[in-house]
Amino acid sequence: METALSTPNNIQICEVTCDSFRIAWDMTPEDTARATHFFIDLSRKEGGDPNRFKHRDVPTKLVAKAVPLPMAVRGHWFLSPRTEYCVAVQTAVRQADGEYLVSEWSQVVEFCTGDYAMDHLKQLLGKALGSAGRLLRFSVFYRNQHPDYFHYVRTECGGLMRPALKDNSGSHGSPINSKLHGVFLSCNTEFDTGLPPNDSPYGPLRFQIPAGNLLNTNTNLYFADFYCMYTAYHYVVLVLAPAGSEGDNFCRSSLPLLDLTANPFLTYIPPQRQGEDPLFCHASDVILEVLYTEPLYLEQGSVLEISGHHQMSQTTANAKKDPSCKVCNISVGR
Q: pTM of this prediction?
């Protein structure tokens, strides 16, 4: 009868990305020479059962031939970005009758996957390009809110709309989620009027600021996300950051930079002749969410009441994208 395998110990996780990681552990030299297979049990941390690794003789989620450690584990079908996982391993020897001699399960180790890398964001950008539609002119950025919001800004913040931390809505792997501060603005207009829509689910007051105050040659534009929430329409999240600012420094290493004068989402076209004004255009077939990374004073623009229906919609805070949508998902974790 073969000698039992020792329990793997000192589990080490390294080179973690949004949809892969490497795993290693300590084995005796004898077990290293004998092992033919590794069994890896991987599960999300939330709601985990500490006794889930109880079937010592049954391979669970991943079965791999023994390879030199650390071993790469990758696959978007079971790994998602920014997600906490629990992992445990067994070593095994396949015997002549096809059965496995297995070790006890190792201790359970926890780790968290990473954000989308630049290559993943460029894949997502490629998806978004096909949904942007034609460009329409616009003249103002705006932010719709309830009167209580503007009262608070005036009385408690000295008229300053301070950048707030981006929530976790949209693609789970977007690098700006819970990391980048900004003030969300809109710029979409109505087809027939060229003006912002009168209806708003956020409130009957609108702060608006001339587009050229924020979108100009002194600012950089970045692509941050493309998603939907089980609806026919899609959202594109852009970041507008003054060149050299803290927000710009963050985005430069994390997000694809867009050409201000030639991209399908939001453009600045400088004057062609003396005395002309620049032109500003937005994509017509997606809803643009523009995150401006700096504080904005109300006095930089104007606050006005808008007509129309203003029924508050269900909050989109931390709302996740539809993982089944073929238009806005890429071949990595959602």
A: 0.86
